[in-house]
Amino acid sequence: MTQAIENSINERAQHFLKVLIERYIRDGQPVGSRTLARDAGMELSPATVRNIMSDLEELGFVASPHTSAGRIPTVPGYRLFVDSLISLKPLAELEINLAKEQLGGEGGSLTVVEAASKLLSNLTHMAGVVMVPNRDIVVVKQIEFVALSETRVLTVLVTSKGEVLNRVIETSRRFRASELEEAGRYLTHHFGGQNLEEMRRRVVREMEEARHSMNTLMAKMLEMADAAIRREERSDYVMAGQTNLMDFDELAQMDRLRQLFTAFTEKQEILHLLDRSMRADGIQIFIGEESGYDTLETCSVITAPYQVNDQVVGVLGVIGPTRMAYDRVIPIVDITAKLLGAALKSL
Amino acid sequence: MTQAIENSINERAQHFLKVLIERYIRDGQPVGSRTLARDAGMELSPATVRNIMSDLEELGFVASPHTSAGRIPTVPGYRLFVDSLISLKPLAELEINLAKEQLGGEGGSLTVVEAASKLLSNLTHMAGVVMVPNRDIVVVKQIEFVALSETRVLTVLVTSKGEVLNRVIETSRRFRASELEEAGRYLTHHFGGQNLEEMRRRVVREMEEARHSMNTLMAKMLEMADAAIRREERSDYVMAGQTNLMDFDELAQMDRLRQLFTAFTEKQEILHLLDRSMRADGIQIFIGEESGYDTLETCSVITAPYQVNDQVVGVLGVIGPTRMAYDRVIPIVDITAKLLGAALKSL
DNA sequence: CCTTAGCACTCGGCGCTATCGACTGCTAAT
DNA sequence: ATTAGCAGTCGATAGCGCCGAGTGCTAAGG
Q1: From A147, which residue of chain B is nearest by alpha-carbon distance?
Q2: B120 within 8 A of B333, measured Cβ to Cβ
Q3: DSSP A32
Q4: Which of A12, A236, B71, B341 sits between 20 and 30 A of A222, alpha carbons compared?
Q5: Which residues on B lie below 8 Å from A166 (Cβ)?
Q6: Are B237 and B129 in contact (CB under 8 A)?
Q7: pTM above 0.85, yes or no
Q8: Residue B341 CA: distances (Å) to CA of B94, B102, B306
């Protein structure tokens, strides 16, 4: 289908579309036929360009804000651009080194995920976001129980990523330290190496069995483990540089901006989007309305999954105005994903 | 000093200042002599009011944006208002019940601190903020070490609030499980019941001693405990309703707004302010420039410490434009602080 | 048939002007 | 001390004309 459209538009028109979009991304103003004729590098008069523009408009790749203004790209225009016209700009040596440095060393108290998020926002001057691995991926390494008081037990789940999930649980009966210890050993042995999802399923099943066999200790322990898992059920993300978005004219209207920032704190919509693009492989680009969320109407989102040992463990990306320097941002997202994967592996 | 100024301004003028501020807070527009004469309820002509206004302006309590506009309150004007003129509006029964409800039950997955923050922002339509207890106050209850791998040990610090601070630490040598266990028991016995600050000091001292006595195990354990404490060195806050601030005209300029939101994510300035007001007792009000931070120039901050068992454990508050309904917000902050204290006690 | 010059037309942006309305400050009378 | 009256200030709004950028269309030329 896209093929059909692409065919219906000749080489020259595509070239003009490309130049137009590049120019618009730079200046942010509608591009007129005169400017375009000059920029395109072909010896064509503005009048001819006007005819081409008319065709492009007919096909829906460009539009004009009003009769006597130049043309600006539409969403399908951007789409065609990023899919087949764009020439990506490789990162400068300097930038790559900077990136490696920031993700490599134990950058102060920042986690590597936070560092990646900041890195994205710094390099792009937009908002950077990194989704942290969720329970489908996180593998349980160890389970411990620690008695806090007569009726309160702390459940500690240690994951393969060195993260620690903990939860305080009220219990109806009192446990001896040795009981807790044994339970921890048992569960670690039993569930170690499974991801949270698998573990959750097994725990539920065994809870059933334990109930029948009237093994109170084990039933209670399973219940506690279950509670600790539930807490981490939903995945989460780390964001940086939101305020960068305030500098873009296209987001200067308060209501838009407010919607956007509300979405950032509510998190669900963004999470859905990130989740979707984790399942797909490779770089994903959502331009304006394509994402399907009203709040992102005037924004584009560029994402890339990152992997450790050939397994996708999360996704990161950048959020900015539809009019963004795709040629620069795409490589940035791409490389950051690779570097983050490498950094995580080395942990 | 304040007394002197207050004396220099007679009862009637104060009344007019009060009415002016109330009116300005409602409408957001400069108040003219005609309106004020009507609102004040005294049988005085606009001309007389103008004379009074002139006096108030001379004293610096009001100012006019330009020659032919009415008057608006200055920071000293607001100060006098909140200090001695204001008539606080008690919360409606309904609102109090709502508040109790939201802070009482285990509101879903929200911590009570998050709930309080949201409550503040909902009731005031501004930004709510709750600072969580820091290491001066948090008391250590228990210390545990869990071996993760040959060279990595998880340090778990359990606090009196049921919070769990943990940190993964690289070690140079390998420990047996029994060693870790014993170390945990020893440290718990030794440092349990102390707050983080005390504990930190002792740990540092004992680290010195241990080094001399060449007790490697103990030295290493102390070092790990120290690392875990350091991580929690800085206090933190939870914020809600930041986006509410986008609706206020006085914050509609992007650069202001950006500064403000940057301050929210950077956190230090806000933390300083909150920290200051935790040391003071009772409700604190910072009007505009009074806070001492440029970013809060057009904002006011109202804070109240909250306590558990007669000991102040944290502080909460509201951030909004200088022109806010102080008469409503002050009681809201006050009551929320009390309710949060109560809610924490019941945990 | 594609390209191009020419031309009429559109429309946003800018600056200028006039008007209106809400105030003030001052003065003089009560 | 209070007040009416009055001149004056200033922001906000609307109207007007002009400029410039850019378009679409038409007709002529390669």
Answers
A1: B142
A2: yes
A3: P
A4: A236
A5: 156, 164, 166
A6: yes
A7: no
A8: 20, 14, 5
DSSP notation for B30-93: PBPHHHHHHHH-S---HHHHHHHHHHHHHHTSEE-SSTTS-BEE-HHHHHHIIIII----PPPH
Residue among B142, B144, B148 whose CB faces A141 most closely: B148
Q: How many CB atoms lie within 10 A of CB B36?
A: 23
The pLDDT, as a whole number, for residue A89 is 96
Q: Which nucleotides of C are covered by protein (CB under 7 A)?
A: 3-6, 9-12, 21-27
DSSP states of A144-185 = EEEEEETTEEEEEEEETTS-EEEEEEE-SS---HHHHHHHHH
Instruction: Give the Cα separation of A130 and A44 in Å (integer).
Output: 46
Tokens standing for A317? 């990306």
Distances (CA, A) of A43 to A15, A32, A40, A258: 13, 16, 8, 47
State pLDDT tens for residues B190-200.
888 787 777 87
Cβ-based contacts of B162 with chain A (< 8 Å): 148, 152, 168
Q: Where are the alpha helices (DSSP H) in chain A?
A: 2-8, 11-27, 33-40, 46-58, 75-80, 93-104, 112-124, 177-191, 196-213, 216-231, 254-266, 268-279, 326-345
**What is the tens place of the pLDDT at every residue in A6-17?**
446 788 999 999
The answer to whether A168 contacts B148, with C-beta atoms less than 8 Å apart, is no
d(CA A41, CA B277): 65
Q: Is the dihedral of CA B149, B153, B158, B163 positive or negative?
A: negative
